[in-house]
Structures are given as C-alpha cells and as structure tokens.
Amino acid sequence: MIYAVINEKGGVGKTTLAVNLAAGYALRGRRVLAVDLDAGAGLTTWYGVEGEADVADFILGDGPPVEYAVKVRENLDVIPATKAATINLEYDDAILTDRGRRRLKERLRRGRYDVIILDTAPSVNVLTVNAVIAADAVIAPVLADYFSLRALVELNADLRGYRRLVGRGVARVGAVVPMQHHAGRRISGEVLEVLMSGYGAIVAPAVRTSVKFAEASSYHRTIYEHDPRGRGPEDINAIIDFMEAA
C-alpha cells in the first residue's frame, strides 16, 4: 500500500503523522519506505538522514527505490529530500508532462516494500500531483480549527481537479486524522463533530495533544522510542489498525 499524507495547510502535524506511521508499520514487521517530497525536508530532518542520493535523484533515476534509500530503523528506509534539489525538481520537464506526472508511481512500483509513506509539501505543486497519482489512498491530518477544515474541503476539490486533469488513477482520501485533539477543549469536540458528519466512516482515531511528539523530533526519535508507554504510540497504533481494517 502507498499512502500520501497530504494537507495543503502547514502546521497540521503532517510530518509528525508520516514519520510515526512509518515507524509503527515497521515495528509490526512490515518493510516500509518513507519518501520525503517536501522541500522543507521535515521527515528527512526528523530521522536525521544524510544520504548520497535524494528524492530528485530517485524520481529522475532508473534503479529501484532501495538504491536511493537510507536505512534508518529495522524494516524502515527513507528516501530523503534536500531543499535545492526538490525545488528544482518541481520545475523539471521530466515530471511536468502527462507521462512525467506518473513517474513517481512507476518508480515506486519497482520496490519491494509492503508499505510506502509519502510526506508531501503544504502546498499544491507537481510533486503533490505525482503523490496522489502514485498513492492508493490519501491520509489527511486535520487540526481542530476552521482553517484546517477549510483546507480539507479544498483538498477534496483539488483531488477532483486532478482527476479531470489526468483521468483515472488519482487517490481518494482514505482517512481523515484529527491531530492534537484535546477532549477537554470545546473546539476539539466541535471539529470532531463536523468531521464525523461530513466524512463519517473515513474519520480515523484522533492523535491526542502531547508534547512528546515535539520532544521526539528534536532527538530524531520516533514516538515509539521517545515515549513507548505513552498515549502517542497508542494513538498511532489505533490509526494503523483503522487503515488496515478499511
């Protein structure tokens, strides 16, 4: 399965979710590849990855994904991003054509991974289009605020636009994940009600508010390593269970 973690609004916990979903699947014995498609390189920085190759080399290259990946944990590889190369890639003719927009999908299918997680930029660009074409499903993290809800509506509209642009094969939203959920805050409850009424069956278990995620990133750790008995691993595991039952 290939999952693209997407929200066109920044600061919603997209990379937090991508990093820890990848780690959670790996701990279950799955062979996992995490791909950083964001020029901000948040996933790359979180894992503290330094590689000879980056995602631009991978997309424009010929070899299988493993040749461009860095092993970061047992069962878990990362294809990193670098700012300059990723920005330049967004304007490369090789991925701007109709064939080019499908290049990431073609490249990823050459791998031998059980799960692939794509971490995307908080913007609409050609790499996002490549991601939704490559993915089997989109995972959309949403904060408990109006702007995040609006971004979710816009994401669905953009996915419909991509389908008109490229035809069949564009992933649909398979899971909406409430991030930084706080049961004691009225706004969290209100947003969750809106999500349930509008998206129902695809609303995944929430990731509760926890400073442990931010701490984990500063130490280049996953939440499973930084707070193994805390609520963070429980929440990520619940989302994986939800995705596997879908």
Radius of gyration: 17 Å
Task: Work out the helix count.
Answer: 12
User: Helix/strand/pairing class, anyone?
Assistant: alpha/beta
Shape: globular
Q: Can you write the helix and strand succession as a string?
A: EHEHHEEHHHEHEHEHHHH
Instruction: Provide the spatial order of strands within the biggest beta sheet.
Output: 3-4-2-5-1-6-7
The tally of strands reads 7
What's the mean pLDDT score? 91
Number of domains: 1
Largest beta-sheet characterization: 7 strands, mixed
Task: Write the CATH architecture name.
Answer: 3-Layer(aba) Sandwich
Please mark out the parts with pLDDT under 50 across 5 or more consecutive residues, or reply none: none
Task: Describe the 3D structure.
With 246 residues, the protein is an alpha/beta fold. The protein has a single domain (2-245), classed as P-loop containing nucleotide triphosphate hydrolases (Rossmann fold, 3-Layer(aba) Sandwich). The chain is built from twelve helices and seven strands. The chain has helices at residues 14-27, 42-47, 55-60, 83-89, 93-96, 103-108, 126-134, 146-166, 186-199, 212-218, 223-226, 231-245; strands spanning 2-5, 32-36, 70-73, 76-79, 115-119, 137-142, 173-178. The chain has a seven-stranded mixed β-sheet, with helices on both faces. Strand 3 (70-73) and strand 4 (76-79) form a beta hairpin. Helix 1 packs across helix 12 (231-245). The longest helix is centred in the middle third of the chain and has 21 residues, at 146-166. The protein is globular. The mean pLDDT is 91.
